[in-house]
Design a protein that fits this description.
elongated, Rossmann fold, 434 Repressor (Amino-terminal Domain), 6-stranded mixed β-sheet, disordered N terminus, 3 domains, alpha/beta, homodimer, DNA-binding, disordered C terminus
DNA sequence: CAGAATCTCTAGAACGTTATAGCTCAGTGG
DNA sequence: CCACTGAGCTATAACGTTCTAGAGATTCTG
């Protein structure tokens, strides 16, 4: 019995610290929580003992004892770059409100139902779902058990709260910008069945009609670079070619840009391009995509605030769906259609190649 | 006292199920865990009661009572796309081994220390750190408390386990491929202080000398598209221009490609480019980057297996550092340098622009 | 100086689960 | 008829924390 392989010394607990400091267990708890009820001298002594033993509170036991777990569950897609921005924002919002976050990822081998189930086992008090693809009925069922915040997807059910960008207004900003520059043949590359795509399509139509333009050109696109590239080829094949295009998102727009470059079109000389998301892609200096920025910070702040309001019993029905205004970030892929770029070797090449 | 605002019905517990089924609490526990010690008839009855009440086990209480939490903590960067692949792999590996994962993200406002601290509070049994930037001493301190697996970064300390790709071998694969195609002026764009960069640099040097090539060209690069673009401009300005280049990672390589296209260079006609990571970027049809693929599935499987081995008390010192062989994915950005592409309008343009 | 208020601390119970030990009852073998 | 076995179930005690109630000491108040 000289060797005990997995000896794994028991974690130090409040009881260990209490014994070392010569006080009771609850008093140590009081000190560790900075709760009132201990003298300064004792606090000092207890803290010292805790440090010496390397004490770390056990959040499982803590949450078990408290009625409130102060835990908000987040379901996010591990592939989607914009979810990264949202998760960052959620962390800071939750932190300032004194809540913790429990992350549960959706991966190719782990669907949303599993992700949600694990968060329910962890006894989260509320759930934040980023761009969920669960059917509305399941979302409603879930919301019967626990407050549910859906981010970046419109949901018809009244059971769940929604925080999302005003997609229609975003595209309208883009069209306004293009019209102001002098464009009047403006196309839209679509996101298909993706969350928000229908709204953006609608915004495009409305903006055009508001400006008295009737040449509606909607091309099937998608969420990825490949789908954008495909759409761009169709765009260039049109008989009366538009001078500008609004694209469902930045990834898709990057695919469009790539095809334009390969086909020797100058951007923005021959074609202005506007994306959507203001993802890290867009701000890259060699892409410099003009794009519609979603206010991730505001979205996440509101989602957390609303979740906490629900937990506190404040149900404001008028805030069930919060639609956040986006803003336009103008970079280098948009310009007036009639101005010939001063030093644009590509312009000549385009003439050469057509 | 007619209204109780946050009434929030208490979760159903084992006791509720037990009362409904007319049995004791421990028996319900036995049934829910599929443990031996209950008759088939009783199991049926208990399960029925549990379903009716919508019972969900409380993982906090469960983990508190068990000595083992069966929980592995993962620290990952929310920005880094490759971490997404790794997280996916970790989920499936942990799942098949009967472990749960606790995710903790590193964001601009949440550093690695905080991410680790929160996992320690959750009483994870082991930690998996993806490409951590913590100093070696802190990693060693951490490893004194809990088994630590470092993924995708070489660490000198013997305290932590490491699972990583053989970066040097990866670049050597790339160089071998290029030499085979007939290249002999091959440059390398560097990753600076990034994890793995030093190894890749070394692999480049060794591969060149193995092939008897002495024209070592190492250009400062980085992890991002912008840094790749910058490096590409330096590359093109070289007096005796290389015909091929190996780049630190795919993002950086994308920046290189973009500058090459803008400057009217044909890829692979005028310049072959090889990336590293086989990220989703590389496989996009309009980029089609030849690249060195890291075996994410194998890396994650080994990391989980090793963590569990540690927990079971098996410490195999010879497996402290596991170096995984990468493989080359050949796409369309590499070709022989002397073959003029058949239909390459850009070739003429390049001549035109130089 | 009595009584009240305040401060500092402790005892004990509780959160929801599971491990351990023990109970009951049928069946079995001597 | 008794001891024994084993299956099926229950009582009790933990896990580590925090809440409630209250004890003892000190200070304040009139």
């Amino acid at each position: 019995m000289t060797e005990k392989p997995p000896v794994r010394a028991r974690r130090t607990t409040l009881a260990d610290v209490a014994a070392r400091a010569g006080v009771s267990v609850p008093l140590v708890s009081i000190v560790m929580r900075d709760a009132p009820g201990a003298s300064a001298a004792t606090r000092e002594r207890v803290r010292e003992a805790a440090d010496e033993l390397g004490y770390r509170p056990d959040s499982r036991a803590r949450m078990l004892r408290r009625s409130r777990t102060q835990l908000i569950g987040v379901v996010f897609g591990v592939q989607h770059p914009f979810h990264g921005d949202l998760v960052s924002g959620l962390y800071t919002a939750a932190d300032t409100a004194g809540y913790e976050l429990a992350l549960s990822a959706v991966t190719p081998g782990r669907n949303e139902s599993r992700a949600v189930a694990s968060l329910l086992q962890d006894r989260c008090e509320a759930l934040v779902l980023l761009g969920p693809s669960l059917p509305t009925t399941e979302l409603a069922d879930l919301a019967a058990r626990i407050p549910v915040m859906v981010v970046a997807r419109p949901v018809r059910s009244k059971a769940v709260d929604v925080v999302r960008t005003d997609d229609a207004a975003g595209i309208q900003l883009a069209v306004d910008h293009l019209v102001e520059l002098g464009h009047y043949r403006i196309a839209h590359i679509d996101g298909g069945r993706a969350p928000g795509a229908a709204e953006r399509r609608r915004g495009y139509r409305e903006a055009l009609s508001r400006h008295g333009l009737d040449e509606v050109v909607i091309l099937p696109g998608g969420l990825t670079e490949d789908e954008g590239a495909e759409a761009a080829r169709h765009l260039l094949a049109l008989s009366s070619r538009p001078t500008a295009v609004t694209v469902f998102n930045d990834r898709c727009a990057t695919g469009v840009l790539d095809v334009l470059h390969r086909e020797r079109f100058s951007v923005p000389g021959d074609m202005s391009v506007v994306g959507f998301d203001d993802s890290s892609l867009a701000s890259l200096s060699h892409i410099a995509l003009t794009t519609v920025a979603q206010d991730a910070e505001r979205i996440t702040t509101l989602a957390i605030a609303r979740a906490i309001a629900r937990l506190d019993g404040h149900d404001a029905p008028d805030e069930r769906e919060q639609v956040i205004a986006p803003h336009l970030v103008v970079r280098s892929t948009t310009a007036s259609p009639d101005i010939e770029p001063a030093a644009a070797p590509s312009r000549g090449v385009q003439t050469f190649s057509t």
